[in-house]
Amino acid sequence: MTTITIREKTTSKRWRGFGNLLRKELGGFWRTRSWMIHLLLYLLLVNGLIAFDAWDTKQAGGASSEVFVSFFAFHALFVMAGVIISAQGSIVGERQDGTAAWILSKPVSRGAFLLSKLTALGGSFFIVGVLVPVIRRK
Fold it and tell me: Where are the alpha helices (DSSP H) in the chain?
């Protein structure tokens, strides 16, 4: 006769629920139109500023390589600030709606809740805000 044994899945209590929350956050960004809106904003912002800097340095007769290096360093900080602001807005919105309390009443750790938001938004903003605008056509 065959005996059925059930093995309990062992996960760290610190990251309990991280995978499910990450999937939910990624779906909230990529399955809606918000990624298109962010992509258009970043493309307009980055390409517009690059065009303005190129025109300005051409008029002034300066070296454009120094301007572009400083611009891209500033652009990386701008994307990181956007991630933090969006994550804070998402957390505050869920707290006001009561969904944060409902999610945290489940077997989900607070660290997994916060890290899933930062990971999903950070990765998504990196793709939309850094990788796509930097791609050059040949």
Answer: 18-30, 34-60, 64-97, 99-104, 110-126, 132-134
Report the pLDDT averaged over residues 27-53: 84
DSSP string, 26-58: HHHHHTSTHHHHHHHHHHHHHHHHHHHHHHHHH
Rounded Cα gap, residues 82 and 129, in angstroms? 10
Residue 138 pLDDT more than 50?
Answer: no
Domain extent listing, the chain? 17-134
pTM: 0.71
Closest Cα partner for 124 from 46, 48, 23, 19?
23
Q: What is the mean pLDDT of the chain?
A: 82
